[in-house]
Design brief:
Blueprint: H1 4-25, H2 28-34, H3 51-58, H4 61-69, H5 85-91, H6 98-103, H7 118-125, H8 128-135, H9 152-158, H10 162-170, H11 185-188, H12 192-199
Helix pairs in contact: 1-2, 1-3, 3-4, 3-5, 5-7, 7-8, 7-9, 9-10, 10-12
Length: about 200
């Protein structure tokens, strides 16, 4: 006779296989329908990626909300790059998901394998709404640096994201911090507009 626990485990594995298939196919509707069948919401599917990780990747607000209600851990990182669901939301411009994850106690200062925070990811790509959502957290470390010593401000300045540079400066990002190459955000400014923003005197 098969025990209930082994049956549940088998069923859960089957659900996760189907969830992964939906993710691979970009089938958001199919993914959302399967969520309620997940027994263990924190089970790793592949490379320590949970159902929540995949839901964020797909950008499904309904799936993310449901999984968090079912007790999904918002701080489980994958093993490839060390990305948590919050890293993923920040780097894929899923700004509507960031408040949901933060409310579920996602760490705003979590770091990946390259010591990059969600704020750094969003700043690299110039995702202004993601940055605003992250900066709403009083405990955010706006001057956190990655494994090369680059802060969000340095990276945004080097990628011509003038609006991001302005927003970070308004939130007291330190323009004088140096990366491991000895360069500040001013040194890395991609154009004169950004350089001027960085050189403006702040009261």
């Amino acid at each position: 006779m098969t025990s209930r626990s082994s049956t549940s485990s088998s069923e859960n594995s089957s659900v996760y296989r189907r969830l992964q298939q939906c993710w691979s196919a970009g089938d958001i509707d199919g993914f959302e329908k399967l969520i309620l069948d997940v027994f263990d919401v924190n089970k790793a599917i592949d490379n320590n990626r949970t159902a929540l990780w995949y839901a964020v990747y797909l950008g499904s607000e309904a799936a993310v909300s449901q999984l968090l209600k079912q007790g999904a851990d918002a701080n489980i990182a994958d093993t490839c790059a060390g990305w948590t669901p919050l890293h993923l939301a920040a780097r894929t411009n899923r700004f509507k998901l960031i408040p949901l994850l933060l409310k579920a106690k996602a760490s705003v200062n979590c770091i990946d394998h390259y010591r990059q925070t969600p704020l750094i990811h969003a700043s690299v790509y110039g995702y202004l709404e993601c940055i605003k959502a992250l900066l709403s957290q009083s405990k955010i470390d706006i001057n956190a640096a990655d494994d090369k010593g680059n802060t969000a401000l340095i990276l945004a300045a080097g990628r011509r994201h003038s609006e991001v540079v302005h927003l970070l400066m308004e939130n007291k990002a330190n323009r004088l911090l140096k990366n491991h190459a000895g360069k500040t955000a001013i040194d890395c400014a991609a154009n004169q507009t950004i350089r001027s923003l960085l050189l403006e005197k702040k009261e």
